[in-house]
Amino acid sequence: MATGLLPICFGEATKFSSELLDADKRYLATVALGVSTDSGDADGRVISERPISCNANDIESVGREFLGEIEQVPPMFSALKRDGKPLYEYARAGIELERPARTVCIHDLTIISVSGSSFEMSIHCGKGTYIRSLAIDMGERLGCGAHLSDLRRTAIGRFDLENAVTLAALEEMSLSALDTLLCPVDHLVAGLPAVTLNCQDAARMANGQRLPADYGMQVEGYVRIFGADRGFMGVGRYLGGVIHPTRLVSSKSGG
Predict the structure, then answer these.
(1) What is the per-residue DSSP string for 149-189?
(2) What is the C-alpha to C-alpha distance for residues 36 and 68, in angstroms, rounded to an integer?
(3) Whole-model pTM above 0.85?
(4) What is the DSSP string of 58-126?
(5) Domains, the chain, with CATH or none
(6) Could you tell me which of 130, 120, 135 has the C-alpha nearest to residue 56?
């Protein structure tokens, strides 16, 4: 039911995976009206059915109500943990726990089409947004209930489907061909300004030392750090005239 973009981090690149978790996401979603399920999607058990009396104008009007910062209750069928156990394990055991609402941000919500008892929409949202919860809440506002029947993630931050490769295509590739698909270790933080240290300073940084910033730094914030003889070394923070190492990579993977 859920398809689309899934960036995969290997080795030292996993140190920067939070960039993906914190990034905005884009989705195409299909919502089925009149039927509510326990999971909020098409894989769940039907728990109620109600007549549909809304039209396209009603759906577009409700969609506009969810723009901006909203309060959203995470679904029970989610990986959020309670007492060390994911919520979906409680849900599968028939246990429902109270979940506090969280503030999430919907930057854009566009109704693409309305057809019979379903509609398709595109969503650009901030981190932590559950599209299933969005479908459920829209269904309640429309008075008929709803569930998510199809979901496709089309973008995460700077990544989109244009350069994605299907699993079927990956399975047919040779090892050498697979290597050509790998992005550099610093790809997730490519938007940060870069600073290249001389050999002596790079050695000090590799040992976790802070460095006076004699590299023309003018704006405080996070930077990508390269060594003249080492390649990419990791991420640091320029603060108060000093570069502080925050997340360094192994010297074997920095090139």
Answers:
(1) EEEEEEEETTEEGGG---HHHHHHS-HHHHHTTPPPTTGGG
(2) 25
(3) yes
(4) HHHHHHHHT-EEEEEPPPSSSS-EETTEEHHHHHHTT-------EEEEEEEEEEEEEETTEEEEEEEE-
(5) 24-156 (3.30.2350.10), 187-248 (2.30.130.10)
(6) 120
* Residue 116 amino acid letter: G
Residue with tokens 């884009």: 26
Cα–Cα distances in Å, from 150 out to 28, 36, 40, 216, 224? 8, 14, 11, 50, 38
Model confidence pLDDT, tens digit, residues 72-85: 998 888 888 998 89
| Structure tokens given for 176 | 């050498």
Within 10 A of 111 (CB to CB), how many other CB atoms are there? 18
- Are the C-beta atoms of residues 13 and 188 closer than 8 Å to each other? yes
208-252 pLDDT, tens digit each: 999 987 787 778 899 999 999 889 999 999 998 899 999 999 865
- Rounded to the nearest 10 degrees, what angle do helices 131-142 and 56-65 cross at? 120
Looking at the DSSP bridge assignments, the partners of residue 211 are 243
Q: How far apart are CA 239 and CA 219, in angstroms?
A: 9
End-to-end Cα separation, the chain, in angstroms: 39
Burial of residue 60 (CB within 10 Å: 0-12, 13-18, 19+) is middle
The letter for the amino acid at 22 is: D
